[in-house]
Every structure is written in C-alpha cells, then in structure tokens.
Specification:
single chain, two-stranded antiparallel sheet, 8 helices, 12 strands
Length: 226
C-alpha cells in the first residue's frame, strides 16, 4: 500500500500545474486506501450502542481541547504572549504561550504535583539519549551546569535542539544518588525500563521544545502576567 501511494503521489507532484484534476487523484487515493483497509465506517457498535467517531469521542475520551494550551520558552519571541513558533512540525502556524524558563519549569512541577500529565515535544536524538536503556541525559558538561534561558536559545538557533519526537510526561523519580529524573512514556516499544524513559532535569529543561498542558496547572501569579 505504501509503495503504491508513494508512486501515485509522486506522479501527482511531478505532473505540472493544472494537469491533474483534484478530484481524480483524491478519488484514486481514496480507492487505494479502501482497497487495502476497507471503507471507513460512518457508525460502529460498542457495548451495545451505536456511535459515530464524534459521539464516541464525546462519550469516552473525556478531553476538552479548549482546556489545553501549548507552552514554550524562547527569547526571540515575546514572553507572556502567544506567538507562532517556527519549527517544521508547526505547519499549521499554531500559537504557543511563551514563558521564561523559570515559569516554564514551575508549570511542569505544578502539573505533576497536582496529578496532571503533559504532552512533551522535543529533541530525542542526543548522543547520550539511550532509548533502548530508557535513559536520557546530556553530556557531562551540560549536566553539571544550570540550564539558562540563553543556553536554551543558543541550542534552538544553532539547531542542536530540534523537535523530532513526542512523548507523555507522567512523573518524577530519583536515582540512587538522589538525582532527579522525569518519567516519560515512549511510543517506540519496550526497553530495559519497560517502555519508559528517565530523562534528567537538565535534559528536560534544555531539550524540550514545547509542552501541552491543562490550563488549570498555570499558577495564578503566572496567569496575571499573561
């Protein structure tokens, strides 16, 4: 299926402006998907009731998108305002609430302390990020310093911090030496930590591009600045 769709889209992309009828290639793509996967059902039954995808989401998922906000922390855009973050994944020009690093960290801590998890977006391609072992740390020099706003900005601008992965930030832990790690659920399968990744505090503060958080975890003193 993938090979067929790739060949089809390559043909569409190289045929030249005006030579492809929009409905024809869309219908061909839809036909290919249906041939391999079957038609998307408009309704389905679950526990004796009939649902559409929308009514099932309303009944079972329990997430109101309007209650969530994406936060980031970079100095090239205004603090305490929503701005478009120019990263490749933000093709929809979504806005992010930009906060200084101290407030950024405060919201992370406040969320975890009050039973909220966070959706994490950041750089997972660092040399010392060993996902098979479930450990994500920086190099010795970066682990020994305090992560600053300036360093976050520097690594963003020189592209040594990139947005190449998403994980689910669910909690904190300490190793036998008392060092703080953040617990993230990964989507890349099992590893030595049962599928979890333990990320050091410095790694989290430097290599996180953005976080999706529930608006209730933003403390009042930060809300007043927004």
């Amino acid at each position: 299926m993938d090979n067929l769709i790739e060949a089809m889209m390559s043909s569409v992309a190289t045929s030249g402006y005006g030579r492809i009828k929009p409905n024809s290639w869309r219908n061909a793509l839809q036909g290919t998907l249906e041939a391999y996967l079957g038609k998307i059902p408009s309704k389905f039954n679950y526990k004796g009731k009939s649902y559409t995808p929308k009514t099932f989401a309303d009944s079972y998922i329990g997430i109101a998108p309007e209650n969530y906000i994406e936060i980031t922390s970079y100095s090239h855009i205004s603090f305490y305002k929503k701005s478009i973050l120019n990263i490749p994944a933000n093709w929809g020009n979504n806005t992010y609430l930009n906060l200084p690093i101290n407030d950024f960290e405060t919201i992370i801590e406040n969320a975890l302390q009050n039973g909220y998890s966070l959706a994490w977006d950041g750089d997972a391609s660092e040399p010392n990020f060993k996902f098979d072992e479930g450990i994500a740390v920086l190099n010795k020099k970066q682990e020994s310093i305090k992560i600053s706003q300036e360093l976050r900005q520097e690594t963003f601008e020189d592209k040594s911090t990139t947005d190449d992965h998403n994980m689910h930030l669910i909690g904190k832990a300490k190793n036998e030496d008392g060092k703080i790690f953040y617990i993230l659920k990964n989507s890349e399968g099992d590893n030595e930590q049962g599928g979890f990744v333990y990320m050091s505090k410095n790694a989290l503060l430097l290599k996180t591009i953005s976080l999706l958080v529930h608006k209730d975890v933003i403390p009042e003193n930060i809300k007043h600045k927004i």
